[in-house]
Amino acid sequence: MAIPLQSRLPKTYRIKAIQQETDMVRTFTFDGSLGARPGQFVMLWLPGVDEKPFSVAFDNGAETKITFFAVGPMSEALARCSVGDLVGLRGPFGTCYEWKPGQHIALVAGGYGAAPMYFVAAETVHHGCTLEVFVGARSKEHLLYLKELESLPHVSLHVATNDGSEGFKGFNVQQLEKMLEAVQKKRKNEKGKMKNTDPIDQVFACGPEMMLKAVSELTAKYKIPSQLSLERYMKCGYGICGNCVVDPLGIRLCTEGPVVKNDACVKIEEFGKYHRDALGKKHTF
Amino acid sequence: MIVPMNLSQTILGVTFENPTVLASGIMGITASSWRFVTASGAGAITTKSLWPQEHKGNVNPTIISTEHWMLNAVGVPDAGPEKARQEIGDFMKDHQVPLIANIIGLSASEFAEVAAAIAPLKPDFIEVNISTPTFLKLRGKLFAEDEGEAASILTAVRKEIGKIPMFAKLTPNVPNIGQIAAACVAAGADGITAINTVGPGMAIDLRSRMPILAAHKGGLSGPALKPIAVRCVAEVYEATGGKVPIIGTGGVYTGEDAIEMMLAGASLVGIGTAVADRGIDVFSTVCEEMQLWCTNEGVDNVSDLVGGMHQELQQRGMKGTSMTHK
Fold first, then answer.
1. What is the CATH number of the domain that holds B112?
2. A32 at the B interface (CB within 8 A)?
3. In this predicted model, what pLDDT tens digit does every residue of B189-218 receive, in sequence order?
4. I need a labelling partner for B321 at 20 to 30 A (CA). Which of A185, A188, B95, B300 fits?
């Protein structure tokens, strides 16, 4: 299969706007589109510092947005950037979420996974989909994109925080499980349809790997198709270096991923167990 | 009924179902990756360069490209022999295609050390990387620039690997690749891999005025490399009298590219950068394209192509390519 046209040479863009989302999370807006689809990523280059993969938080054909968590040397340096500074982008790379018009889809977003999930939500509702969006974070101040998600039509928002400071106290996957359970019971008892108990056609998830693992197991148990956004260390972003290959399938998360259908995810033995560093050494989660 | 032409060859006692070889440095870190490439049709796989100890690579950006070329300055990262033992051991349990272990070091003794660690894993060939541009940063020059240095590395490796066929991987960045190849063969190389990346090259971002690669410079591969690779393979074939197998590597994208490389003298054809442009199935695609071309042209065995240009020149009473600078 030939690889679609993409930019494999970074082009620098000036930061057009900076939105402070939470203490640690910022969104940069760049003038210009890379033609990214929801779930795809770009390699973001900070000249003189480093280059790393980032999920595209939004691309409407005119502007591109990246939401990031200042957690390591690269993203901390990025967080010190101002409007007008130059940042290189190349891509978009990888697979995207796939849906059919009119589907009832559950989106599960953990931490800053809420950013790409908002991109998915905005596109899917445009195609007549109805959404159950499960947003989870450690606590209230780490919740992202709630206002944006609430502003979309056909979206039911379900919020969970680990400490209970907002919404359900616990994990968003627990809320998803309750819904899937309710849907199953409802469907067994009566054939009539009701809001929130319509069958869920598919589940999309983006967030920490242990959350994804839980979504994988849950959707396999309820026999609902799911698509999960997996993450591994990357160098090239387009299928050459082999750093993001997962055991034992050998697929590259930059090319056959990052969005992987759950029937493949369940065959990835390292999923939820370990990942590899720049040298290919294993590290457990 | 058309009988499909035969793509298989036995080289130095090892059978290759088809002439395509995953080039070193591409997709080559784990057994899972090698199996994925094997399933995609590669006739053999080459590991990423294996060091005698852990070796850190460069900061990103390390790999960038356009449709004409790719520049890489990955810096040859590797976790060292323990990981190599695990991954090669895993792959060799049920390997469907030959495995070529590519080794690297900073001195003859380092090469000997890694060779001694890898040989017991019984790779089908050992490819000695004396030509990575990373040597320019680490020691100022490549071993493959100098006949004596190249020979001393190969002699040291040979002592550690018994009868495992040994290939020397050469650089195009010399005026006399034929002479270097002949020196390698005299020092015990059973075959030559030609070529490593050319350059290094550089790409600058206009707005930031910064070199894009973190290491500033990187080896150039991809389509732009092919004519240089074809010329180098032809010179190596001529200088070694067509007596040793050559793995021709550099800018091979299509079946016709592979055939051209074989006419220049290659028995096997490395594919690397094309994985990005034509997809992971490039190996089976190139084989299908070779089959089609050979069937149309009445070539029954792929081995009949090897060195075809030299035979043609000879038949016409013309001298060899004679491009080797003396």
1. 3.20.20.70
2. no
3. 999 999 999 999 999 999 999 999 999 999
4. B300
